[in-house]
Structures are given as structure tokens and as C-alpha cells.
Amino acid sequence: MSTFVELLLNGLSMGSVYALIALGFVVIFRATEVVNFAHASLLLAGGYVTATLHDDIGFWPALLAGVAGAALVGAAVEFLVMRRYRGTDQSVLAIVTIGVDILLTTELTRRIGTDVLAMGDPWGNAVLTVGPVSLAHTRIAAFVTAGLLITVFLLAFRFTSWGVAMRAAAESPETAALMGVRLGRVSLGAWAVAGALAAVAALFLTVFPTPGLERATSLAALKAFPAAILGGLDSTTGALVGGLLVGVTESLATGYQSDLTFLGRGLGDLAPYLVMVAILLIRPAGLFGTKELARV
Question: Could you give the CA distance from residue 156 to residue 174 in angstroms, rounded to a whole number?
């Protein structure tokens, strides 16, 4: 039983980090109706800035610099690339983000090389033990931080003028523009927010028990993609639920791998995608996604 509780807590912690990343996918999709395949490179950029600066300026300023850096990269991608293709079909824009991701990831992995960069976080490898259950301090910090950020985002999304503008743009861009909503600003803000959330997620994907930031970190970020899809790509609630579901599924599948050897190795990596496919077979729009009707 203690093993199950430990795996469940670890899964919820990682799930909250995946929810942060999935929220970035959702924010951009709601603002622009574009699936952003460059999200992993934004995450890698934020983590790289934090990892390279913490020795010189300390961990917390480096983390702020990483968040700001990823937000700037996201805003720059929107302003310099995506804005020029405004009005183009969304599927074409999604392909453009693949090109942006390849460009950014190639440059960042070239800079990282074969190194594993420490993040300089204050939690180290400390572990909290309560009875038979042990949980790393980094996991607790991840859960608390992600919970606070998601709460702040949801409040801003509901009660601020920025949130109202984004919801209006998601419902009907043409009507929102006629009502005075500046779609360019909404899109720019969405990319910046997505980058900032990705930078925070990068920190918790690369601290203990993970050795640090490396070239493959961006691949770990892709685990959040099933979370955004199965939750519903246009739903902030779906991103949260999807992230937690993916985190718990991955943790339980990895923890009980030895009892499921007949299914082969690497079940923890595969399980989130299997859950995503199973849910999409039942609900094609995701758990909380909006069903679209088309007149024919």
C-alpha cells in the first residue's frame, strides 16, 4: 500500500508539471487556434538560461531570468514568424511551428552538447519521509508551485481584461476584432505566457531525481502533449486534469513495471499515449474539449 501511495504522490507531482506545459499548449491554441509544436524548444530555452546563469547570479534570479528569457523567445517567435502568416490555414501554421522547433532545438542542443547541466536548485536531493512513504522535496515544491501558478492563471483568465480578450478571441476572432480586441496583442501575450510556464516546468523536469538539463529534456516535455490532447486542446480545465492523469498513469506504470514484464519494457513512457488513444476513441474532442459542428 505504501508503494502505491508513494507512486500516486509522485505521479500527482509530475502531473502538475505536465499540466503547466499542457496549459501552454491550450493558451496558444485558444488565442490563435494553432497547435504549437515549438513548445518543447521554449521549455529547453528557459531551462538553459536558468542552468547557465545560476552560478553567477544565484538560483532565484537565474530562474526569473529563465522565465523571462523563455517568455521573450515565445513572444519573438510570434512577432517575427507567426504574425507574418496571419490568416493562413491553421494546419500550415502548425507546420511552421515544427520548423521553428527544429531550428531552436538544434541551436540549444548544440550549445548543451553532451553535458548535463545542474539547475542549482535549493532543494537538492532532500527527501521527506512520513512513515513508510518518502517523497523528494523537489516533488513537493513542484506540486505547490504548479498549483499556485495554475490558480493565478485561471483567476487572470477569468477576471482580467487580458483573460476576457483571450476568451473573446477564442470564441470568434472576427467579432472580437470588431469589438476592439487587438488580436495581435492577445496572440503575443499567449506566446509569452506559454513560454514562461514552460520555463518553470523545465526546472522541475530537470531537478532531483533527474540529473539535470540535457539534450533529451525537450523529449520529456512532449509527454505533456497527450495531456493537452486528452483533456481537450481548448480547455484549461482539461489541461489540468489531463496533466494529472498522464502523471499518475506514467508513475504507476513505471512503478509496477516489474509486475507487468509480459507487456515489455518502457511501459511508463508508452502508457500516457495509450490512455490518450483510449479516451479519444470515446470522446474525440477530449474530456473537456468543445465539440465543433460543421454545416455541410
Answer: 23
202-220 exposure pattern, b = at least 16 Cβ within 10 A, e = fewer: bbbbbbbeeebbbbebbeb
pLDDT tens profile 132-169: 888 999 999 999 998 899 899 888 888 888 888 888 88
Please list the alpha-helical segments (H only) found in the chain.
2-32, 39-57, 59-80, 90-112, 137-159, 161-171, 173-178, 183-206, 217-221, 224-231, 236-255, 267-282
Pairing of strands 133-136, 127-130: antiparallel
Strand partners, 128: 135
C-alpha cell at 190: 499567449
Question: What DSSP line would sit under 103-156, residue for residue?
Answer: HHHHHHHHHHTT--B----SSTT-EEEETTEEEEHHHHHHHHHHHHHHHHHHHH
Cβ–Cβ contacts within 10 Å for residue 278, how many?
Answer: 10
8 A C-beta contact, residue 97 and residue 225: no
Q: Among 35, 29, 286, which Cα is nearest to 169's?
A: 29
pTM exceeds 0.85, yes or no? yes
211: cell is 540529473
Summarize pLDDT for 239-278 with one digit per residue, the tens: 889 999 999 999 998 888 878 777 777 788 888 888 889 8
Q: Collect all residues with Cβ–Cβ distance below 8 Å to 259 and sequence separation of at least 6.
A: none
